[in-house]
Amino acid sequence: MRERMQLLAAAMRHDLVLLQKKLFKRPFVTLLSKANSRIIFDLDDAVMFHELERGQPVDGKFFNRFAAIAGVASSVVAGNSYLADFARATRSAPTCEVTVLPTPIDTARLPAKTTYADRSEFVVGWIGTKGNLQQLQGLADPLREVQARIPDMCLRVVADAALELPGVRVEFKPWRAEDEVADLHGFDVGIMPLQDGLWNRGKGGYKLLQYMGAGLPAVASPVGINAEIIKHGDNGLLATSPSEWRDGLISMAGQAGLRQQLGSHARATVESTYSLDGYLHRYASLIEELLS
């Protein structure tokens, strides 16, 4: 209670309140909007379905909180069009602006790789957190088929926990911030499998954009924003069925030219559409407009 009162007092002292994915119950949201009517609600996950992230049945608790905040916000910044549609459907303030701003990549900090030559080992890479490792379980069969066809393949998992997939050579590398660029450049191809569902449709595609920003070709599920980011066959590959995953990965192996072509187009996509500089410019303009 004390922290909430301090938050209300701080809101009254400032020109604007920025809530990033934070969900409050409706009574507090009402008090907050009275303390400061200029509220930006920023989200890049399907926070209205938080139960699914926790493996719980959806009971509407988080959706009601989401609707309360979206309803009083002066502006909603959504990481993709899926989230934006929910915000537009639930808002009650007619002047509320809903803007889609996908999660950006700092291209100055993440340069593109420069070497695509075929090596003795074909590295299929995945980077993320242990909470998302289960997404890889659905690729067990196609990865086993690729392993059988390409014995030198390894699945390199850069995360905070290891993974076992029987029949697949998995190499675990603990994630460290100072190693991230080198880890990404060590992949030959990045993968982002997603099971289709309410939670995954709200993801911002950051993992995919990391691969692409690093100049990597990527294979991803066409779920949520992934299908908007990747133009199949141009800056990456989209795969739904096990055979599409298998064939997509096999097509990358032993074809440095193909990997370089897709990777360079991927990098260009990030630079033109998903760069941090462009994101900050648009966000600053949104704030200035709101304050004016």
Number of strands: 10
So how many helices? 13
- Judged by helices, strands and strand pairing, the structural class is alpha/beta
Q: What best-fitting shape do the alpha-carbon axes yield?
A: elongated
Q: What average pLDDT do the residues reach?
A: 94
> What is the helix/strand order?
HEHEHHEHEEHHEEHEHEHEHHH
Estimate the strand proportion.
15-25%
Please specify the SSE layout and strand pairing:
Elements lengths: L1 H12 L3 E4 L5 H10 L3 E5 L6 H4 L7 H12 L2 E4 L2 H10 L6 E4 L21 E6 L6 H4 L2 H10 L3 E7 L10 E5 L5 H6 L3 E4 L13 H8 L4 E3 L5 H4 L7 E2 L3 H11 L3 H18 L2 H16 L1
Parallel strand pairs: 1-2, 2-3, 3-4, 5-6, 5-8, 6-7, 8-9, 9-10
Provide tags for this entry.
292 residues, alpha/beta, 6-stranded parallel beta sheet, 43% helix, elongated
Give your account of this protein's structure.
With 292 residues, this protein is α/β, with parallel strands linked by helices. Helix content is 43%, strand content 15%. It is built from 13 helices and ten strands. It has helices at residues 2-13, 26-35, 50-53, 61-72, 81-90, 134-137, 140-149, 180-185, 206-213, 226-229, 242-252, 256-273, 276-291, and strands at residues 17-20, 39-43, 75-78, 97-100, 122-127, 153-159, 170-174, 189-192, 218-220, 237-238. The strands form two sheets. Strands 7-6-5-8-9-10 form a six-stranded parallel beta sheet, with helices on both faces. Strands 1-2-3-4 form a four-stranded parallel beta sheet, covered by helices on one side. Helix 7 (140-149) runs parallel beside helix 11 (242-252). The radius of gyration is 21 Å and the shape is elongated. The two termini are 33 Å apart. The mean pLDDT is 94.
